[in-house]
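Listing 4. Sequential folding, example run.
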Amino acid sequence: MLKFLKKRLGEPASLIFDTASLTGLGGRLNQEDALAYCSINPQAACWIVADGVGGQEAGEVASQLAVTTILREFRANPRCSGKNMGQLLEAAHRAVFSARLSRPASKHMATTAAVLIVDHHRAVWGHVGDSRLYHFRDGKLLQRTSDQSLINMMLECGALSEDDMADYPQRNVILHALGQDNTPQYRINGPVAIQAGDGFLLCTDGVWELMSDRELLETWQARHSAAAWLAEMQERLEPRVADKNSSGKPADNYSALLVKVFPYPEP
């Protein structure tokens, strides 16, 4: 649990960010997801999930490199700003791209990512590809990132209906990723004011493909702590992973960071 110290009288109350993590192989042989989080001081913290692609173990290299790079750069500059988020994502992109060039057998190595940074009462998030961030408040899904994927682009322009998504042959094609040939388009949101009672979920597509937005909202509402929220998600998610594996279509790796925001307790 990340405890943020109380601020001076008249300033916004400090917050506690209660965090839990979930990760699993699904039906895959390798884990190509990576996740981590850190607090720098009583005023700054960062969470990241990443989903690597590329074959020959390159996916796990790309995702872990993105996570390591972003946390390292955040420790060096823990500012909660859109500019800093862009710099974090750009540093990760350069790191994965450089590693790709040094691995001829892994020329398609890349990774998606979703990143959240906060200070006492503000948050900024950014993402690349189809790893997602959800922001919950007052019993509602307040915001959710929009996937940078072929299928989402087709949905947005009306070329595909939601009923056709599950069977679309190119449903896993992503349009932007860290480490690709061209600099990806980073999508950044904030700073956004946050408050006690908020919840954040960062997850890879192995989670959201098996759980709807409505169900993710229900799991957040049903439980108090991040650990209890995690248990509720596992209870729903893991049987579906098993069912998908038994159907002959192996489930993807799945990973999530769950963050619940609480007020710092009064003395």
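-- end of first protein; second protein begins --
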Amino acid sequence: MVSVRVLNVLFTLSSFIGLALSIYAFIVEQAAAKDANYKAMCDINEFISCSTVFKSEYATGFGLASKFLGKDSFFNKPNSLFGIAFYSLIIVLAQFNSKSFAVLNLLFSTFSVWLSVYLAYLLVFVIRSLCIICAGTYVVNIINFASSYYKFKKLSEPPAKVQKSKKKKA
């Protein structure tokens, strides 16, 4: 089985990719808001266009904040800002090798996968556009979930019998 150290590296690396994607999404959102003719690198055609997605009503507050909390709500911010905060937080949490922090990362990663499913549904069935940046964050979230699950599992294992027998002899 993979070591906790390798899982930490995988989790941290994928989270940095998620952070970079979120920062890029924020830059594209801001540029598209200022210039209606702005064309991002991720805008390939009418169907594959992150700008289309980032301009949609679902790009802020996950499409839920304004409906339930109002347009002036603190939570009605660009999704990319939530991504920046989220990935920054879990990068820090991943550096601790305790079962408590592993549980937190597992909970956050599980939530992010469910949120990815919701947002992917919106992309395909509501917005009807493909966002490469969004899809990238979904992949990152799946990798993070798997890494956090195996890290939690590894930290929950009892110490190996070989190590116990060595300690008894000493």
